[in-house]
TrEMBL record, chain A:
The keyword Transferase does not apply. The chain crosses the membrane at residues 12-30, 42-60, 66-83, 95-120, 132-152, 183-203, 223-243. GO terms for cellular component: plasma membrane. The lineage of its organism: Bacteria, Pseudomonadati, Chlorobiota, Chlorobiia, Chlorobiales. This is Iron export ABC transporter permease subunit FetB. It is a multi-pass membrane protein.
Length: 263, 222
């Protein structure tokens, strides 16, 4: 049996556009107004993934630690701006602590998995470090956006209760403890739910990729388990640190609530 | 002897470039005073109370509590002594008892002993709440009853000054009369220092207040 995946030719790739055709027809029939988005999304998928393919090929060939870390940093900064785009609060400055926390915790996670658990030598071997980093960043980014938005929305909704607690002698941590807990758990729940459903209701992307590439399914499973655990840990770590820093920034020097009610 | 609360040359604006809400505002409050501040909506009465307990920062002037600038005190220490009660009472989704006692879990109150049920039940009747029980869900109470629970909760912290922000504006006439009666009794019998803002014509019947009107960005004594 040949373990190498069947190659996809250029024409076979174009045949995949049949699925986009179905989506476009659906949008037209029901006046969904999504045709432009579907077209742009398709073009971006082709362009961004091919670009990534060339960049990865280049990086894998060069095998340079600084270049690997540069690409990793660009991924983190891009992710933090995507998080910023999903959060509506404009008054509290949260971008810098978010970038720093994301960088430190994602780096620590990717290093731990690549260098210690799997034992890649050197630890920054781009073929391992960048895909792990990418998976951590991609998953935790969504979790972080959910957690930050939840924190701000709960603090806005419960402004009167927070101030009532402050007036009764609570410090800012005591006044907002409930909102902090809710925000962190809102960020963590998707990755915990993913652990419940994995293997039963979906075959995760990384494992599917490895199996398609001819890897032993039991080896692919081991990789996937490490990834799932890594995602829960990195989500918890990033949410916990970032939300605590942002929560502090919601209060002024007099421990007064700075958050504006309007968005 | 230092007054309990002193406001000196207070200047406040919501934005650095906007027109000031107050200019050169001065006030002295002695222990046991009942200060009643009147003014139309938007004149800054509520904002003034929020500045005193640092719920909002101010840039010019000084506010002193017992001679010490309020921004030199730790906010929780200041706020448990100069206690602000908001216009709309905030209740947690729990029993009346839990609502009365949750401030005792704050670190600033760790040296205080929470009152027992007998004490709380006795206080409920002082606050015209003899018809409710400690185990009743607080969110099921009327706004008037919630306001009295909020006042009782504030009193349990034994503050030195009570800042009352339009305490009866959301209440019907009967509930409002009960709240005013409680406030007057606190001042008259327990010597509690009270600063109350209102836009109504309320005039205490059993105590003699220091009456001010906030107009044209400053106080006018009536």
């Amino acid at each position: 049996m040949n373990n190498l995946p069947v190659e996809i030719s250029f024409w076979q790739l174009l045949l995949g556009l049949v699925f986009i055709f179905i989506a476009q027809i659906t949008s037209l029939l029901y006046h969904l107004g999504l045709n432009r988005d579907i077209t742009v999304g398709t073009i971006r998928t082709f362009a961004q993934l091919f670009l990534m393919g060339y960049v990865l090929t280049f990086i894998f060939q060069l095998e340079n630690v600084w270049l690997t870390l540069l690409v990793f940093s660009i991924m983190v900064i891009s992710a933090s701006f995507i998080v910023k785009g999903r959060v509506r609060e404009k008054r509290i400055p949260y971008l810098l602590p978010t970038i720093l926390t994301m960088f430190i915790s994602y780096f620590a996670t990717a290093f731990f998995v690549s260098g210690i658990i799997i034992g890649v030598d050197p630890w920054w071997e781009p073929r391992y470090f960048l895909p792990f980093g990418g998976m951590v960043i991609g998953n935790s980014m969504s979790a972080l956006a959910i957690a930050i938005e939840r924190l701000f929305s709960e603090m806005r909704q419960q402004k009167n209760m927070i101030e009532a607690r402050l007036c009764l002698g609570a410090n800012y941590k005591e006044a907002s403890a409930e909102m902090l807990r809710n925000a962190i758990s809102a960020g963590m729940i998707p990755s915990i739910n993913a652990m419940m459903g994995v293997g039963l209701v979906f075959i995760p992307g990384m494992m599917a990729g490895q199996v398609l590439a001819g890897a032993d399914p039991l080896q692919a499973v081991r990789y996937q388990i490490v990834i799932m655990l890594m995602l829960v840990g990195s989500t918890a770590m990033t949410s916990f640190i970032t939300i605590r820093i942002i929560r502090k920034r919601c209060f002024g020097r007099g421990e007064e609530l700075l958050l504006s009610l309007s968005r | 002897m230092e007054p309990l609360l002193t406001i000196e040359h207070l200047w406040f604006s919501f934005s650095p470039t906007g027109a000031p809400l107050f200019e050169e505002l001065d006030l002295r409050v002695e222990t046991g005073d009942f200060v009643l501040l009147r003014g139309v909506s938007g004149s800054g009465k509520s904002t003034l109370l929020r500045l005193i307990c640092r719920l909002q920062p101010f840039s010019k002037g000084r506010i002193l509590f017992k001679g010490v600038p309020v921004d030199a005190l730790k906010p929780p220490e200041l706020r448990r002594q100069v206690l602000y009660v908001a216009q709309i009472p905030s209740m947690i989704d729990d029993t009346v008892k839990a609502n009365l006692l949750f401030p005792f879990s704050f670190s600033v109150n760790s040296d205080k002993q929470a009152p027992d049920d007998h004490e709380l039940i006795r206080m409920l009747s002082d606050f015209y709440l003899q018809d409710i029980t400690l185990q009743q869900p607080a969110l099921n109470l009327s706004v008037g009853q919630q306001q009295r629970v909020a006042l009782m909760r504030a009193l349990l912290q034994q503050p030195e000054i009570l800042l009352l922000d339009e305490p009866t504006s959301a209440l019907d006439a009967d509930s409002a009369a009960m709240v005013f009666s409680i406030i007057e009794t606190l001042n008259r019998e327990k010597g509690m220092t009270i600063i109350c803002v209102t836009h109504s014509d309320y005039r205490p019947e059993t105590v003699e207040p220091d009456l001010y009107i906030l107009k044209n960005r400053t106080f006018h004594r009536l």
